[in-house]
Structures are given as C-alpha cells and as structure tokens.
Amino acid sequence: xxxxxxxxxxxxxxxxxxxLPTASSSSLPSRENRDEPAPxxxxxxxxxxxxxxxxxxxAQQDAEARRALQQDAAARRPADQQQPPATDxxxxxxxxxxxxxxxxxxxxxxxxxxxxxxxxxEDLMTPRPASASAASEEPATSAPRTAAxxxxxxxxxxxxxxxxxxxxxxxxxxxxxxxxxxxxxxEQHRSVPKKKRGRGCLIALIVVLIVLGGIAAGGAWVYNTxxxxxxxxxxWGEPKDYAPGEASGEVQVTILKGDTGSPVxxxxxxxxxxxxxxxxxxxxxxxxxxxxxxxxxxxxxxxMTAAAALKALDDPKNRMANTVRIAEGSTVxxxxxRIVQGVGxxxxxxxxxxxxxxxxxxxxxxxxxWLFPATYTFDPGVTAKELIQRMVDETRAQLKKAGVPDSDVxxxxxxxxxxxxxxxxxxFPKVSRVIQNRLDTGMMLQMDSTAQYGYGQLxxxxxxxxxxxxxxxxxxxxxVIKGLPATPIANPGARAIDAAMHPADGTWLYFVTVNxxxxxxxxxxxxxxxxxxxxxxxxxxxANPGTGC
Length: 549
Known about the structure:
- The protein has helices spanning 13-18, 42-76, 113-125, 133-136, 157-160, 180-184, 199-225, 227-234, 261-270, 279-287, 306-314, 332-343, 347-353, 384-401, 409-422, 428-441, 448-455, 467-470, 494-501, 527-543; strands at 248-255, 296-302, 319-320, 323-325, 375-377, 510-515, 520-524.
- By secondary structure, the protein is mainly alpha-helical.
- Strands 1-2-3 form a three-stranded antiparallel β-sheet.
- The radius of gyration is 59 Å and the shape is elongated.
C-alpha cells in the first residue's frame, strides 16, 4: 500500500533519523586511558615539547661530562705528551683517557616557524614548572635540539620535578621572557649562615667597660673632693641659712673692738646663732657691705637667720652693760681685751692682775685654763683682781661638779684644754681617748695646738702648724717633749672637762679634721689610715682656700 507520508523526492524524515549513527556504532578512536592526551591535541603537543626539552638538557649534560673527562685526562698526561686542543678541523685524540659510554640521541628536526610561534603562544598561556622555564625560552638560534621520539608522551621526571634546586642560580630570580608563572613566582629563600662573633667583640666590650669604669672613678673622686662646691652650684646641699621662725633660746655674743664682717660671722656661727660659718658674711656682702659693729656683749637667739642676726646686733637694747663673755678655748691673752670692752677696765690693770697665779691659789706658772668660759655681769666699780678671782672660783666649782680630785686638777685641766682646742664638741670623748692611748703607750702627743701655743700662734687662725712652731724648743711643744705640756693651753668648758674625766672606749691613735667648715674629723687606728685622712683634708683645703687650713 502506498505510504501517504512518503516523499517522491527521497527518503522520509523517519528514515533520516533512523540512519543516524549511535554511540555504540561510532567510528571515533577509542582510548584505553582517559588521562593520556588525545593525539594532535594541544596537550599532546605540550607533552612532546617538554620531552624534547628534557632530552636536550640530557644531551647538554652528556656533552659537558665528556668535556670534563677530556680536560681531566689532559691534566693528568705528562707535559711532553700534551696535545693541542681539538678544533672543528682536527678532532682531539685522547688515547689515555677513559672512554665514556654515553647514550646517543637522534637530533630533532627544526620545527617550522609557524609551529614554533604557535608553541610559544601556548607556552605563555600554559603554567609550567619553574625548572623548565629557562630551557623553554631559548632563542631559535641556539644549539640544535635533540628530543626523544614523538611516540613517547610521558614527561621526563627531571623536567617535571616540583622540587626546585636551590643551588641553581637560575632559581634566584625569574628570567625575562619566561612564563607567567615563572615571572610571578615568589622569590626562593636562601639561608645565609650567621657570622660568628670573634674575639674582637669581646675586646671592644672590655675596652668600653674600662673607659666607663675610669670615667665613673674620676667622677667619684671629683665629687668627693669638691662635694661642697658642687652641691652649692647645683643646689643639692642643705640650705646655708636657718629658716625664719626656727630661732629659740638665748645666747651671748661678744663683739670685739675692730671686728669686721668675717670675724663676726665666725663668732655667730660658733655661738650657734647662724647655721654656717660664712652665711652671715655673704649676707653682709650682698645687703650691707659697709656695716659698723660696736664692741660689747649682745643677747641673741640660737638658729637665727643672717638677716635677723644683723638686725639684733644693730639694736642697742641687745647690748649688755658691764658684761663680758669668756669663750671656750680662749686664753688669758685673748680674754683680756674682751674684758676691757665689756666692763671698761684698763688693759694694764688686768695684765698686772694675772701676773701671779698663786694670788688666786693656782699652783702653776700661768693662769691659762683657769678663766672659766661663761658670761659674767659685774657691778660698776669692780676691780681687775676681783674680776679675775670670780673667774677662777667658777673654774673650781666646775671641777668639783665634774668629780675631779684636788690632786688631779692640773692634769685634767691640761687634757681638757687640748680637747677643747683640737676637736668639736661631739668628738670630745674620742679626742680624750686618743690622748690617753698615746700617754699609755709612751707615744709623743704631737698635737698641733700645743706647738702653736708654745710658739705664740694659737690664735693665728690656722689649723695647721708652721714648721717653725713644730720644731720650736719649749715646754708646751708636744712634737719635742713627751707627755703633757707644762700648763693648760686654753680655757676649757664644762664638756671638755667631762671628756677628760671620761674618755670614750676605743683604740684610736690618730685623728685629723678633714672639713674646716663642719669640723668633720676622722679617727684612725694606724698611721697608714691617718695618711689617707690627711690627703682628704689637704684636698678639701685645696678646694676651699682661705678657710683656715
């Protein structure tokens, strides 16, 4: 029967779709391993190119190994058997060198320019291992390439090894014209061995420490030597003056005829009125350099400011009439002018009154030591003899109060007079111990105050003794005689008498004042220690000229 759907011009649509090939009957080539690149594909071309490059590298390595063997054999051959190096016209013969059996690789024909250009484009667009970038970018004019047969599509392990060779300089930085991966690949880290520190660092450190130690030692010496001046300059030390409102108590100060600012300043300091020896004098220089002082005894207070002390001395109400003050450590010679100014007696009458000590019951050639330091007020019309008798009686009362036996009065007064002249009040018991230790061991006392007294320089205002006084032959110079001087050398106060009766416990044999402003004294057991203290005193005197050294 005729099919109504049939076309007179050819087969129908049903026949057309019935004749389409199915997947099972397809004639497309089959592959056993889907991982292998399809023949003719770009992947196959890349694999072939990588294999060719690997083979080329192996050929170059073989050539380099062959040349190394030839050079080694030539180096070992004796000089007379050396042959000239081989050239292209005449190859070199190396009969003695071992023959290296190396694999031969058939040369690969040069690719067509178009294919080469196409391959380079593929190389730029395809990431590759960094180790193959250098070889793949060689110019076309390089040495002839060698490659394995195209049938081998498995890449060479050396060409695809992901581990880079850190010893190869080509890995230090990417080459220009390489692949994009090689161009932007991170820089490989190369470990640099740490430099070993040699002995130079140790020597430099030792030198630095020595220099710093020297600077520190020098600074310490300078500060110890010039401590007072440095403190004053930097404002580190204690204030030189008392603060307003600290004044208290009562003290008598004697101003002698002709006294100027400097001796008055010292007198105020010794009486406890001002804080330092020079503060009153410095205040006068700054405020009233032309002030005039009137002789007499003045009532002042302790711990006064320099300004308050000057105001008190200017007030006539503070000057005491018919009053005299005998100072600790004074002598008869230095006390008589004070008596004249305080009481109004004539100096000749006073000098005649002290000529014979026996008149007052004193068994000694001189009255020094017997005019007890105190402030005395006399009625108008008092005689010179009555005045001296009252002072001697006060000395006996103080000796009795201290428990001194009548038979030991002269010895105690003599020791007390040396203590009064040599030390400051807190050090009195120590000075007394040094005197006693020297007497007990048979040493000479060698006290500067005794030499000065015997030579007439006790009130010269110097702490040290002149060579003339030190070597003068007299009964009071303990640098010449052994034991105590012939008489007391000054008028000791109650504290000095007590120290002579009760010396401190200790083994000291030497002492020296190392600071004349503060009275600081160093006590030593040995002569070597004493010499060091003397150097300290000399350094202070050098740094403080004009201070009584």
